[in-house]
């Protein structure tokens, strides 16, 4: 088994998803790669955690109660303190409209669920400032 490169080890990665299964899966994969993982069930909970812990990368589900992924991403990107944090959208929808809307609110990338371990890690390596 090949060891993951250490360039993402120690990075703070946030996963915002109302699905416990998705949160647990992502958390498990990311912790094995050496990341410090923060989770939230929706955008409201996430915003408080982001303010306290300043994650290096944020993965956000699109379909969530109260504050959806588009709204959450827009709030992050419209905040001068947090706008530099890369936001990667997660969705079970793979439509052009959904991808375009993700770009409009400022997301760096769009991953379709179910995502693979490599897709998650590649996105972190591509966008996390400390991974470069």
Characterize the main sheet: 5 strands, parallel
Low-confidence stretches: none
Q: Tell me the number of structural domains.
A: 1
Determine the fraction of residues in helical runs and give it as a percent range: 40-55%
CATH names the topology as Rossmann fold
Portion of residues in beta strands equals 15-25%
CATH architecture: 3-Layer(aba) Sandwich
Widest β-sheet, arrangement of strands: 2-1-3-4-5
- Measured distance between first and last alpha carbons: 24 Å
Q: What integer value in Å does the Rg equal?
A: 13 Å
Which term fits the overall shape?
globular
What's the CATH first level?
Alpha Beta
Order of helical and strand elements: EHEHEHEHEH
The residue-averaged pLDDT reads 92
Number of helices: 5
Secondary structure tally: strands: 5
In quaternary terms, these chains amount to single chain
- The CATH superfamily appears as Response regulator
Structural class: alpha/beta
Sum up the structure in keywords:
single chain; 132 residues; alpha/beta; Rossmann fold; 5-stranded parallel beta sheet; 5 helices; 18% strand
Question: Can you tell me about this structure?
Answer:
This protein has one domain (7-127): Response regulator (Rossmann fold), CATH 3.40.50. It is globular. Helix content is 40%, strand content 18%. By secondary structure, the protein is α/β, with parallel strands linked by helices. The chain is built from five helices and five strands. It has helices spanning 20-32, 43-53, 69-77, 96-104, 117-127, and strands at 12-16, 36-40, 57-61, 87-91, 109-112.
């Amino acid at each position: 088994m090949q060891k993951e490169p250490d360039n993402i080890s120690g990075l703070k990665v946030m996963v915002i998803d109302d699905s416990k299964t998705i949160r647990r899966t992502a958390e498990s994969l990311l912790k094995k790669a050496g990341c410090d993982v923060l989770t939230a069930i929706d955008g409201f909970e996430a915003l408080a955690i982001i303010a306290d812990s300043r994650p290096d990368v944020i993965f956000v589900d699109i379909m969530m109660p109260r504050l959806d992924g588009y709204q959450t991403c827009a709030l992050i990107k419209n905040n001068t303190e947090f706008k530099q944090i890369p936001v990667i959208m997660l969705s079970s929808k793979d439509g052009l409209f959904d991808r375009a809307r993700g770009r409009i609110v400022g997301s760096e990338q769009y991953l379709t669920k179910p995502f693979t371990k490599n897709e998650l890690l590649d996105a972190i390596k591509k966008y996390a400032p400390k991974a470069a």
